[in-house]
Hints:
By secondary structure, chain A is α+β, with helices and mostly antiparallel strands. Chain A has three domains: 15-120, Alpha-Beta Complex (Nucleoside Triphosphate Pyrophosphohydrolase); 126-194, no CATH class; 223-300, Orthogonal Bundle (Arc Repressor Mutant, subunit A), CATH 1.10.10. In chain A, 31% of the residues lie in helices and 20% in strands. Chain A is built from eight helices and eight strands. Chain A has helices spanning 55-67, 134-147, 152-166, 178-187, 208-225, 239-250, 256-265, 293-296, and strands spanning 15-29, 32-38, 45-46, 71-80, 93-102, 113-117, 269-276, 284-289. Chains A and B meet through strand 1, strand 3, strand 4, strand 5 and helix 3 of A and strand 1, strand 3, strand 4, strand 5 and helix 3 of B. The first copy, chain A, binds a DNA duplex through residues 238-240, 255-258, 260-262, 265, 277, 279-285, 302-303, 305-306, 308.
Amino acid sequence: MALPPPADLRRHPSERVAAELIAVIVAVTDSVPRVLTLGGAALPSGPFASEHRSLQAALRAWVEHQTHHPLGHVEQLYTFADRDRAAEAGERVVSISYLGLTREARAVGQAGVSWQDLYRYLPWEDRRDPDATLAPVLAQALQAWAEAAPDAMLRWERRSRIAIAFGLERRAWNEDLALQRYETLWEAGLVPEAGGSTAPGEPMVHDHRRILATALARLRGTLKYRPVVFELMPPNFTLGQLQGAVEALAGRRLHKQNFRRLIEQQELVEETGAVTSETGGRPARLFRFRREVMAERAVSGSKLPLAR
Amino acid sequence: MALPPPADLRRHPSERVAAELIAVIVAVTDSVPRVLTLGGAALPSGPFASEHRSLQAALRAWVEHQTHHPLGHVEQLYTFADRDRAAEAGERVVSISYLGLTREARAVGQAGVSWQDLYRYLPWEDRRDPDATLAPVLAQALQAWAEAAPDAMLRWERRSRIAIAFGLERRAWNEDLALQRYETLWEAGLVPEAGGSTAPGEPMVHDHRRILATALARLRGTLKYRPVVFELMPPNFTLGQLQGAVEALAGRRLHKQNFRRLIEQQELVEETGAVTSETGGRPARLFRFRREVMAERAVSGSKLPLAR
DNA sequence: TCAAAAGTGTTATCCTTACACCCATGT
DNA sequence: ACATGGGTGTAAGGATAACACTTTTGA
């Protein structure tokens, strides 16, 4: 085993704090990204369940018990522990959050547990409809906040921060910045959690919407260099459905042909031989994920082919 | 403020656990990556220090108190909470780890606190010397472990895992996989922490070496798409020194000219006008980091230009 | 026949990689 | 003079972004 720790190494008493797990469970059904909620206003949180050796195992068991679906990819997101994040007690609550991906959002067992459209909580993150100009509108309100800063330095910082986060001033929209966007709205006091009412979107309990934004940002980042989309797809799917799922998560449209080339050249899928005409229009070939490449492509490095 | 939580949402009592902060503080001096240790065998760990609102602030205050150096970039790494990770007590210890970057590793205030060459703990991660063939040697020992697997399926999995992690079978070495490599060595029982003695490198207390490997992997990943190296450099530096620092962290040599082009085209630095002849050979121009681009390049997306 | 989605060919451009060479200084 | 690092030009190759068009079905 490990070396015994020299006696003087631990200079601090072991502090005891309240702790919990929080799960952001995501699925995609018919190009709608869905998240598992309690009563539509909270993310499911669970105990450490000390029978399990690892937190990951505890989370898995607990979610699978609730949803009757196996969890695919699971990764730790972030540990939230700021002092004032749980309003009730004065004591610090440590929440270790996890992102979990699963196939399809069918009915769930427990009462109060439901799947919700993820963009219900973060509507400005969905830019698939080119006419949806929500983010720019929000940016306007943010500008006012920037100009209200007491000194020039701070004004400049806020302006450039807004421009980067919301893709203003000839900068491109970056879907990965979901967390920065939420935090900027929060700081500007535009969300209900911070006492505002300008920003749309359903609020959540405590800082759960921040946790959701963290999950979305991480998921979008992960999409680009690891084949995690497949964790969200049924065993067989068309390339159109696959693209639809990626678009749903990325919140933007992709260039069809370049998307296909990308999938093809990375040899991520193989034909099943069957076709389906359920998609409308010309029947599409069905594909399945090539599990073999899973380990390899853990680090491939491919960006998303944007539309237009 | 946030919505009041519906009464039935929290289905679990708030569990109380022992918790601590663990810091991986990294500096680079003369192309040697250094990490702050306690007695050379443990990472510094600290209390939550509840005066501070955020953990980040607590960590910062505490490290700056110990080292008398301002901390540059700080990011949360991972929260370790497996049941058996702290040998002593039977109780679960939750360790929230942070990565912190600072300039130079000068003398530190507290007794027992010292800077150590990071590769002292993970020697196989340093491949700057092309003659250093440590990783392949280790891979040999790992092969034996793979072949000892009870069934064919498991053997195949282990083989491909080793090949990917250690860049075997005509696969390229990937410096980002530092954590996978450590974990593979651990599972194969080759490190002292797991009862072995094959793998070289100084062991650390508990799972601190795993935490260090996590930090190295994260840092290497971050290097590629965010200008964090500059947090480790003195105010003025030559391009050679900058490259040396990146090489030190990445554990491999880079292509000089392409490295320079990369830095140049991203407009990350500007000339100070001064030159230094301290580097030997032709005197080199001194540069400084352009702080303005910090926010922008938060998401630039550039790989490292490899040598050879 | 037309809407709707599937599926293909081709080109310009930029980034990455790689090659090989010259420059200025201290010893 | 020569070792040592600093500093540059340029071309091949591949991946990405962007162009528009054909095919096959159901209604």
